[in-house]
Amino acid sequence: MTDQVVTRFAPSPTGFLHIGGARTALFNWLYARHTGGRMLLRIEDTDRVRSTDAAVTAIIDGLSWLGLDADEPPISQFERAARHREVAEEMLARGQAYLCFATPAELEEMREKAKAEKRPPRYDGRWRDRDPAEAPPGVKPVIRLRAPQEGETVVHDRVQGEVRFPNRDLDDFVLLRSDGTPTYMHAVVVDDHDMDVTHIIRGDDHLTNAGRQTLIYRAMGWDVPVMAHIPLIHGEDGAKLSKRHGALGVEAYREMGYLPEALLNYLARLGWSHGDDEIMSIEDMVRWFDVDDVNKGAARFDFAKLNALNGVYMRAADDAQLTDAAMAVREHLPEASPVKAAPDTEAREKLEAAMPGLKDRAKTLVELLDASAFLFAPRPLELDDKAAAILADGGRQIVAALLPRFEAAPDWSHDALEALVREHAEANGLKLGKVAQPLRAALTGRSTSPGVFDVLVVLGREESLARLHDQARG
């Protein structure tokens, strides 16, 4: 085994990179970076019916968007089937495994008997010491591990502690099926050994596999990697994470307008923490992360916390970079959205110009784009209920009274326009908010928006005056 730490992320390409898988990839990536090691990617594509090329692409794209690229090209488990067979046959030759000719009917009988006796189904070892010459004709054998029948197998887990498996419960499980294909249990061990994996960091739903896989390592005389089984993510209600909780693919979070750095920060803190630090850069995480600090208990996914964290990252983001991210999310908006309908160049220019005011109020890029709709809305604006009420309740008169001042304004800048409106408010004994709210409603069609003077500047003199005229006339 190599002296350098080698971790691996090993998803099955039967769907997108889901959020739990993304966190597992993150922990593997962080630990490799923290120790100066490498993270590898293995695509566990032995289920040929459910594995798809589209899913492989989606997984790799998802990791790339998050910035969790593996250090070497991905390895296909399916393409290594000959190597898996070779190791199973080597174990057979060394007496660490044996041929089993039990028929499907016999195996079903064992299952039914175990069920009747209210015990877990176990293979009864009937071919463990029999001569293959006694095999019934026409039955293709499987290769089974000759597992120890007494004592226990101990897994020293970096998260779960010492986990003990009575060997009588592990039974002589199948390594190679009768058609020559390897089982998952066997393929994983051979791949991890051949890839020089030193640390297996994966979900604790694999903890029950750890005992059986340890037996294969020992049968081959191989070093057993360090294991760390991290708790699964649950929903806010404590139930196993499902789609209603947020068990979506990473691409869904991208389309919902989350920033990758915010999502990584949030995922890192699901089951791991560094003191009271809430906001952590990727450099902080690499410096601080240790698998020994991962909690045993299940973490709870909370959209409200993710939204708040994403808002922090958006407010701190560079306007040009945030505009790029918003333009990418814009592609996924409904066709009817005025933001999507605008020409690319116009959309980019207006978004970037309005970005300082837009990003201060939004928690996701979708919210930001929704708030930017006023920039692209056709005239006359469609008013929401609150905006319509503001204009109906004396707001139109305020807009009409301000119009001559705006038309005569020599300087269409934020500060000049603010001074103009303040002066009007004071001259008429009004509070600034009483004047600003009708302006906002007339300019955006909404009761909330970026600062009204920012709106005036971003829309420009011509468009602003046209919208104000529309509403002043009613």
From TrEMBL:
<dbReference type="GO" id="GO:0005829">
    <property type="term" value="C:cytosol"/>
</dbReference>
<feature type="domain" description="Aminoacyl-tRNA synthetase class I anticodon-binding">
    <location>
        <begin position="333"/>
        <end position="470"/>
    </location>
</feature>
<feature type="region of interest" description="Disordered">
    <location>
        <begin position="112"/>
        <end position="139"/>
    </location>
</feature>
<dbReference type="GO" id="GO:0004818">
    <property type="term" value="F:glutamate-tRNA ligase activity"/>
</dbReference>
<feature type="binding site">
    <location>
        <position position="243"/>
    </location>
    <ligand>
        <name>ATP</name>
    </ligand>
</feature>
<dbReference type="InterPro" id="IPR045462">
    <property type="entry name" value="aa-tRNA-synth_I_cd-bd"/>
</dbReference>
<dbReference type="InterPro" id="IPR033910">
    <property type="entry name" value="GluRS_core"/>
</dbReference>
<keyword id="KW-0030">Aminoacyl-tRNA synthetase</keyword>
<dbReference type="GO" id="GO:0005524">
    <property type="term" value="F:ATP binding"/>
</dbReference>
<comment type="similarity">
    <text>Belongs to the class-I aminoacyl-tRNA synthetase family. Glutamate--tRNA ligase type 1 subfamily.</text>
</comment>
<protein>
    <recommendedName>
        <fullName>Glutamate--tRNA ligase</fullName>
        <ecNumber>6.1.1.17</ecNumber>
    </recommendedName>
</protein>
<feature type="domain" description="Glutamyl/glutaminyl-tRNA synthetase class Ib catalytic">
    <location>
        <begin position="4"/>
        <end position="307"/>
    </location>
</feature>
<feature type="compositionally biased region" description="Basic and acidic residues">
    <location>
        <begin position="112"/>
        <end position="133"/>
    </location>
</feature>
<dbReference type="GO" id="GO:0006424">
    <property type="term" value="P:glutamyl-tRNA aminoacylation"/>
</dbReference>
<comment type="function">
    <text>Catalyzes the attachment of glutamate to tRNA(Glu) in a two-step reaction: glutamate is first activated by ATP to form Glu-AMP and then transferred to the acceptor end of tRNA(Glu).</text>
</comment>
<dbReference type="InterPro" id="IPR000924">
    <property type="entry name" value="Glu/Gln-tRNA-synth"/>
</dbReference>
<dbReference type="InterPro" id="IPR020058">
    <property type="entry name" value="Glu/Gln-tRNA-synth_Ib_cat-dom"/>
</dbReference>
<dbReference type="InterPro" id="IPR049940">
    <property type="entry name" value="GluQ/Sye"/>
</dbReference>
<feature type="short sequence motif" description="'KMSKS' region">
    <location>
        <begin position="240"/>
        <end position="244"/>
    </location>
</feature>
<keyword id="KW-0436">Ligase</keyword>
<dbReference type="GO" id="GO:0000049">
    <property type="term" value="F:tRNA binding"/>
</dbReference>
<keyword id="KW-0067">ATP-binding</keyword>
<dbReference type="InterPro" id="IPR020751">
    <property type="entry name" value="aa-tRNA-synth_I_codon-bd_sub2"/>
</dbReference>
<dbReference type="InterPro" id="IPR004527">
    <property type="entry name" value="Glu-tRNA-ligase_bac/mito"/>
</dbReference>
<dbReference type="InterPro" id="IPR008925">
    <property type="entry name" value="aa_tRNA-synth_I_cd-bd_sf"/>
</dbReference>
<dbReference type="InterPro" id="IPR014729">
    <property type="entry name" value="Rossmann-like_a/b/a_fold"/>
</dbReference>
<dbReference type="GO" id="GO:0008270">
    <property type="term" value="F:zinc ion binding"/>
</dbReference>
<keyword id="KW-0963">Cytoplasm</keyword>
<dbReference type="Pfam" id="PF00749">
    <property type="entry name" value="tRNA-synt_1c"/>
</dbReference>
<feature type="short sequence motif" description="'HIGH' region">
    <location>
        <begin position="11"/>
        <end position="21"/>
    </location>
</feature>
<comment type="subunit">
    <text>Monomer.</text>
</comment>
<dbReference type="Pfam" id="PF19269">
    <property type="entry name" value="Anticodon_2"/>
</dbReference>
<keyword id="KW-0648">Protein biosynthesis</keyword>
<keyword id="KW-0547">Nucleotide-binding</keyword>
<dbReference type="InterPro" id="IPR001412">
    <property type="entry name" value="aa-tRNA-synth_I_CS"/>
</dbReference>
